[in-house]
Amino acid sequence: MYQRQAPVSTDITKDSAYNAVAPDDFPAMMEVDRYGARSTAFDKIISATHDHFWDPLDKRYIDFAEPFDSENEMMIDPELVPELKLPSFEKLSEKEKVRFVNETARWMMSAILHGEQGALNLSASLCHSLLDPGAQEYAANQTREEARAVAGFSNYVKARWGKPVGVGPAHGDILTELVNSPLVWKKLVGMQMLVEGLAMGAFASFYKWGRDPLMVKLMQLTMTDEAFHHKFGKIWADRTIPNLKAEERDAIEDWAWEVFQVLLFNLGSPEQKKHIYVAVGLDWEWVQGAFMEAMTDSNIREEMQESSNIFRVLIKTLLKAGIITDRTAMNYAAFIDMKELYGESDRMIGDNIAEDGIRFLRELNGQPGGAYSLDRMSAAE
User: What is the pLDDT of residues 190-247, one digit of tens each?
Assistant: First the structure.
């Protein structure tokens, strides 16, 4: 279970583009000088909003009526379901395995839906705090984009299962912490980097391993938005992290490590999805014990060799943002080759998928086609 951390006593802001006030200080928003004090830092990602427009209610973009035989076909590759490698699961009939995999997919899609709802509320909350008109406009843009992701995943879950399952305790606690935090830095690091980093890894995995074409399509459409949301946080990191006092940087770095551990050891743990095991007649506590035996550092390290592994993507996100330094690098090195990550480019997993999706959307929306690169959306100016 996620334990609420003691917050840093003051907000951390080192660039005027991210200046913030208390959410209830609306009079500050009406200061006449504020309207003309707009940073250009966000102009590129704001102007690009129309490049990746899509509508989850318009069948030209995605049709949730597309059928799938979920009674007999697995919606995701069984490689994404590690429980199937445990001895007790090998005894399940093929029909039971299909049911288990698809209920696991339901749990996964529900977790994404809850995460998108958290991102929607958090983005909306930033509109009440960010003083810079450009930063505020981008937060409003992101709020709209998160809303269509919520609509998209709601429609997908409804089409395939009827309704989602409840949020897992650890996941729900972290989302609540981030949405309700009064600290802008915690919202940006927590949502734009930690949660969005996980999301990009998850979307890339489902795009690669999904067997339901409708799921694969939804993943790519959502990634065309998420790639820009990550850049909003990266702009903050580029403008802020190098200018922090040592104690401020340490506080952010240590908090990110604590949250990473909570996510790594709780997000997919059997305790978070007891109902799925009950459905196939297995005791979740037994599964938990088997998992604990199998979840060694070496096994985790092996899984993180996959480029789309969600935790590999998350570590790279933090590393490239400067939130992992020599102080904590050895903590992560237990699970991944940090030298390898240091040597990789700044491009994130999923950027290629998002770019292909943006090209499709530009053509569908009557805009010029041709090459499109997220690299031109500079992290800072």
Answer: 988 888 888 888 999 999 999 999 999 999 999 999 989 988 888 999 999 999 999 9
Q: What are phi and psi of 25, to 5 degrees?
A: -95, 65
| Model pTM score | 0.91
**CATH number for the domain whose boundaries are 41-74+83-367:** 1.10.620.20
Q: What does the domain layout of the chain look like in residue ranges?
A: 41-74+83-367
Report DSSP letters for 242-297, one per residue: GGS-HHHHHHHHHHHHHHHHHHHHHTT-GGGGHHHHHHTT--HHHHHHHHHHH--H
pLDDT tens, position by position, 43-59: 999 999 999 999 999 99
Query: How does DSSP assign 322-363, residue by residue?
Result: T---HHHHHHHHTTS-HHHHHHS-SPPTTHHHHHHHHHHHHH
- Core vs surface per residue 244-275: b (16+ CB within 10 A) or e: beeebbebbbebbbebbebbbebbbbbebbbe
In this prediction, residue 164 has a pLDDT band, given cuts at 50, 70 and 90, of very high
- How far apart CA 259 and CA 310 sit, in angstroms, is 14
CB 314 within 8 A of CB 198: yes
